[in-house]
Design brief:
This protein has about 350 residues and is of the alpha/beta class. Helices cover about 30% and strands about 10% of the residues. The chain has twelve helices and 13 strands. It has helices spanning about 10-15, 65-75, 90-95, 120, 140-145, 190-200, 220-225, 240-245, 270-280, 295-305, 315-330, 345-355, and strands at about 5-10, 50-55, 60, 80, 105, 130, 155, 180, 205, 230-235, 255-260, 285, 290. The strands form two sheets. It has an eleven-stranded mixed beta sheet with strand order 2-4-5-6-7-8-9-10-11-12-13, with helices on one face. A two-stranded parallel sheet has the order 1-3. The N and C termini lie far apart (about 65 Å).
Length: about 350
């Protein structure tokens, strides 16, 4: 579709979903609406309108008549308006407020940087459960105007917005389950600490392609801030210490981790990367999208074989904790029993033998 001027939402759907361009059909996920518009409107006598509208890159910059939108779009539940020319929240709210069943809205790559938003306008988005604001360059002040008006919001996408910091809100929003904030410029864990304060119900946190240098919080703080976190994506972050990987164990419900492209693992082979990470994170069931089932015992053995050859100063904390457990297992030898080897070396060899069996 050639775009030469600004167009209204109503004009675009009347063109795209006319019977000539969008033949009548039924199928899974498709809701068909055939409607007549008010007299004088551009709405044709018949439109084949699905419940999921994809109107990306159509040059839309205004809503059109609200009565037309209400007449033909009341059944629409998902709306993709990415890559249009929308620059006014009021125009967007006229669209959204007339879609009574709308739960998903994608506004990616609309130029909304200078657009103002008040709470009254934001309230028209109250039914939205999944909101995509990628590459809109919205300020955190605008985000915080939205959040109190979106009590059902479960998924929020804030990628490619050039964020270097996070503005802390005085309120928390426990309904949010997924935050997708990739491809920004977040380097300091103190900014992500704020995300935990604002979104205590997070199940999934996607941080890929942020140059995050370390995880600075203690394990106790991480457990308090992210009590429900099940999945975290740290692809292409700047993490450079195994201590940061070990801290991931602090998330009480963690099951899935993604760690491709982090600087810490660049000097390890693919086998070493995977097995060492699995051994350090005993609760995970998915690593980089692949199931861990069946790999854990081999990973534990590999972990011991790998670190038993390292200097004491390079041994991870978990290595010594395993030694303590094993020492208690062999305690029937008696507290004054003389062993010809240092306890640490003896325990390491015994543990290695146990893992081979």
């Amino acid at each position: 579709m050639s775009v030469t001027r600004g167009r209204s939402f109503v004009e675009v759907i009347c063109e795209k979903y006319s019977p000539d361009n969008f033949p009548y059909r039924r199928g899974m996920g498709i809701g068909i609406q055939i409607a007549s518009g008010p007299q004088g409107s551009p709405v044709k006598a018949r439109l084949n309108l699905p419940a999921i509208l994809v109107l990306d890159g159509c040059g839309i910059n205004t809503a059109g008549e609200e009565s037309d939108i209400a007449a033909i779009c009341s059944h629409v539940c998902e709306l993709d308006l990415s890559n249009n020319n929308l620059q006014d929240w009021y125009e967007i709210s006229k669209i959204v407020s007339n879609l009574a069943n709308l739960t998903f809205l994608n506004l990616t790559s609309n130029s909304l940087t200078g657009a103002t938003l008040d709470s009254t306008c934001a309230a028209s988005f109250s039914r939205i459960q999944r909101l995509v604001l990628n590459n809109t360059k919205l300020s955190w002040e605008i985000i915080h105007t939205f959040l109190p008006e979106l009590p059902r919001l479960e998924e929020l996408f804030l990628c490619l917005n050039d964020y270097r910091t996070v503005l802390l809100s005085p309120c928390s929003y426990p309904s949010l389950r997924l935050l997708h904030i990739t491809d920004n410029n977040l380097t300091d864990w103190a900014e992500l600490h704020k995300l935990g304060q604002m979104f205590p119900g997070l199940d999934t946190l996607i941080l890929a392609n942020n140059p995050l240098s370390s995880i600075a919080d203690s394990q106790a703080t991480l457990a308090r801030l992210f009590p429900n976190l099940r999945s975290i994506n740290l692809h292409n972050s700047g993490l450079s210490s195994w201590d940061d990987i070990d801290k991931l164990k602090a998330f009480p419900k963690l099951e899935e981790v993604r760690l491709l492209g982090i600087s810490l693992l660049q000097n390890y082979s693919e086998e070493e990367r995977r097995k060492l990470v699995i051994a350090r994170l005993p609760s995970i069931i998915l690593l980089n999208g692949s199931k861990v089932a069946g790999e854990r015992i081999d990973a534990e053995r590999f972990f011991i074989r790998y670190y038993i050859k390292q200097p004491d100063d390079d041994l991870p904390e978990r290595f010594f904790s395993e030694m303590e457990v094993l020492a208690q297992e062999i305690s029937p030898l008696g507290p004054h029993h003389h062993t010809p080897h240092p306890p640490q070396a003896f325990s390491a060899r015994v543990l290695e033998g146990r893992l081979y069996t």
